[in-house]
Specification:
Number of helices: 4
Radius of gyration: 14 Å
Largest sheet: 5 strands, mixed
Oligomer: single chain
Order of helices and strands: HEHEEHEHEEE
């Protein structure tokens, strides 16, 4: 496993200091969408951290999600409203509260190709 950069806080520190987290499918956070997300956060002066979590549905389907973590709830709410993300509570949603735990989802899996102003790049659609 690659070592974490010293500039990046540990997972447990992120969950403690940036507890207001918004989940977006990882495939949607690439290419021009990454630029759009970064620009939005810069314009709104939102300080945030990024984490990853793997979501697993009851039928065994899984998908990686990128968590945008904010220290303040209003920043997370504005981000969620703008990009149609899903609020993620690290204490409740992460399996057994483990910082490396998966996100056990309920319901039926459906791949998200468009979310608010974001869309999965054509090359990643299949």
């Amino acid at each position: 496993m690659p070592k974490r950069s010293r500039a990046t806080p540990a997972r447990s520190v992120i969950d403690h200091k940036w507890p207001h987290q918004v989940a977006l499918p990882d495939d949607i956070c690439t290419d021009r969408n990454f630029t759009m997300i970064t620009k939005f956060c810069q314009e709104m002066a939102f300080s945030h951290q990024i984490r990853q979590v793997q979501a697993i549905w009851p039928n065994g389907e899984y998908e990686d999600y990128r968590l945008y973590c904010f220290a303040e709830a209003p920043a997370a709410a504005a981000f969620r409203d703008h990009f149609d993300g899903v609020m993620y509570d690290p204490k409740r949603d992460r399996e057994k509260g483990n910082v490396r735990g998966v996100w056990r989802r309920i319901g039926e899996y459906k791949r998200i190709l468009d979310l608010g102003p974001l869309s999965v790049p054509e090359i990643l659609r299949n």
